[in-house]
Specification:
Blueprint: E1 6-11, H1 22-30, E2 33-36, H2 42-45, E3 53-56, E4 59-60, E5 63-64, H3 68-80, E6 84-89, H4 99-108, E7 113-116, H5 121-128, E8 142-146, H6 160-164, E9 168-172, H7 178-187, E10 195-200, E11 208-213, H8 217-224, E12 230-234, H9 241-244, E13 256-259, H10 267-275, E14 279-282, E15 286-289, H11 295-301, E16 309-312, H12 315-327, E17 339-342, H13 345-352, H14 367-373, E18 383-389, H15 395-402, E19 406-417, H16 422-430, E20 436-439, H17 442-452, E21 463-466, H18 468-477, E22 484-485, H19 491-505
Parallel strand pairs: 1-6, 1-7, 2-3, 2-6, 8-9, 13-14, 13-20, 16-17, 16-18, 18-19, 20-21, 21-22
Antiparallel strand pairs: 4-5, 9-12, 10-11, 10-12, 15-19
Helix pairs in contact: 12-13, 14-15, 17-18
């Protein structure tokens, strides 16, 4: 064994990717091998380094991909070879997570290890369901137990008479033995009328909450087909959900929104959608690449002093322009005397992040708006530079020509179809998990349909949301209905439009 190998046992949290700890993220990024469980979502795994090797060790419904013994062997073997190993477990590794057993094995093998606690579903799921586990007007005691003890023990370690007297009882993995748990508590003195709640997929957009009493919760669960992973909460605090339910009342709670824009640009939209309670389904249909030739832009950069205006119509154009400016040995000092126009606030922010003030942002965030904004300027005989995508409309150069200005268009980047496949979205459509598909440019529309193929038919209940009239026109031309077209052609405006639409459509 080298001195380098070690294992970090990490609690990934209950499902909401925002609930993993900063230390957990740091350890995932450093890991060379990641051994992860079924309840660890893909958003958590995105923190892994590009070269990290992922090993799935999950179990679902009691069915193991690999046994616990094999997991232990993998941890020891990988660390013994000198690898930095992350053992990634849902919730907290030491709360009914077998993390203690794995730590014991590592200690016996002489493997250095660290434990990073995680937010357990025992606390998080009730909180997201609007149920505080303690409350001064209800109870000052809470207990956490498992509803699925190790069958090899033969005899239960649970002290049912004591548990029946606890103010709030949280039972993890409760579904399989729900009726027996309820019967045990009632037979040892717990009032059958005590409020009870089952919470499934807590903290995620798929969260479901079933309310009843200790006496009828098992029957209700069977009638509704309530399934794992679920936890049971028993106690007077469950009644507080009626006023404290905050997560399931979010404007886009449970709505599945497909994001088609490039992954590198999707972060802002993803965060806003998640904050509104949506199920985010990343499906980037394009990627952004450099031009096949820098000739047009290099020629323009060689005569920057001739330009009065520099016009940006996307954050991509900004990024690639300044990248190339630096590569040819120039910098922002060479833009002295040039005024800057940006098509909208996001593009303007990308410019200003480089320490450059934007002089003009139109009221309407489309190319026609840029032309209209220049109407009051005396541009006769002047020259403008428009760094843009290879595939772009000529609205701006043609509009400026009409008012006496020359606009040089320089290909600065390309949009290329991604390698995603229709098969990736098929399960979401089949399970009714998609409520809307969002498009942020004509290229996202065209490449989405190209990926989905000529036989694609939009499911009846799936809505189309577009940023701006240009994207909407591309969708309509392609035969798609446009259900959501917000007044503000921005990412926040798109999210507001989705929320307003589904609020009117409720109940779903």
């Amino acid at each position: 064994m080298t001195g380098k190998g070690r294992v970090t046992i990490i609690g990934a949290g209950p499902g909401d990717p925002g609930l993993i700890t900063l230390r957990g993220v740091q350890c995932i990024r450093e890991a060379e091998v990641i051994v992860y469980d079924h309840l660890v979502g893909p958003e958590i795994l995105r923190h892994a380094g590009e070269k990290a090797r992922l090993i799935y060790a999950g179990k679902q419904g009691g069915k193991h991909t690999i046994s616990q013994g094999e997991i232990n062997e993998i941890l020891v073997a990988e660390a013994s070879k000198g690898a930095i190993v992350a053992r990634l477990k849902g919730g907290d590794p030491f709360i009914f997570g077998r993390g203690g057993e794995e730590a014991e094995i590592l200690r016996e093998a002489g493997i250095p290890f660290e434990v990073v606690p995680g937010v357990t579903s025992a606390i998080a799921a009730p909180a997201y369901a609007g149920i505080p586990l303690t409350h001064r007007n209800h109870t000052a005691s809470v207990a956490f137990v498992t509803g699925h003890e190790d069958p090899a023990k033969g005899k239960s370690n649970l002290d049912w008479p004591v548990l029946a007297g606890i103010g709030t009882l949280v039972v993890l993995m409760a579904i399989k033995n729900l009726a027996a748990v309820a019967e045990k508590l009632i037979s040892h003195g717990k009032d059958a009328a005590t409020p009870a709640a089952l919470i499934r997929w807590g903290t995620t957009p798929d969260q479901e909450t079933l309310i009843g009493t200790l006496g009828d919760i098992a029957r209700k669960a069977e009638e509704s087909g309530f399934a794992p992973p679920s936890i049971l909460v028993v106690g007077g605090v469950v009644a507080l959900r009626e006023t404290l339910n905050w997560f399931e009342t979010k404007p886009l709670f449970g709505r599945g929104i497909v994001i088609t824009r490039p992954e590198a640009q999707a972060e802002g939209l993803t965060e806003l959608l998640r904050a509104a309670g949506a199920r985010v389904i990343p499906f980037p249909v394009i990627r952004i690449a450099p031009p096949e030739s820098w000739e047009e832009l290099d020629t323009a950069l060689g005569r920057l002093e001739e330009y009065r205006w520099l016009i940006f119509t996307s954050a991509n154009g900004v990024a690639f322009f300044f990248r190339r400016l630096r590569e040819v040995g120039r910098d922002i000092r060479d833009l002295k005397g040039i005024r800057i126009a940006a098509i909208g606030p996001a593009t303007a922010s990308a410019v200003e992040a480089r320490g450059i003030r934007v002089d003009l942002v139109p009221e309407e965030f489309i190319s026609e708006g840029v032309v209209k904004a220049f109407a009051g300027e005396d541009l006769r005989g002047s020259r403008a530079l428009l760094p843009r995508a290879r595939e772009a409309r000529d609205v701006i150069p043609e509009g400026l020509a009409k008012i006496g200005a020359r606009c040089d268009c320089a290909t600065t980047y390309r949009t290329i179809r991604s390698d995603r496949s229709a098969a990736e979205l098929a399960p979401f459509f089949a399970d009714g998990k998609v409520d809307a598909i969002s498009f942020t440019s004509p290229s996202t529309v065209n490449n989405f349909l190209g990926i989905m193929g000529p036989d694609f038919r939009l499911p009846p209940k799936v809505r189309i949301a577009c940023i701006g009239p240009v994207t909407a026109a591309a969708a309509k031309k392609a035969g798609l209905p446009v259900d959501i077209l917000q007044e503000r052609y921005t990412i926040p405006g798109l999210v507001d439009g989705l929320a307003a639409y589904f609020k009117k459509e409720m109940p779903g």
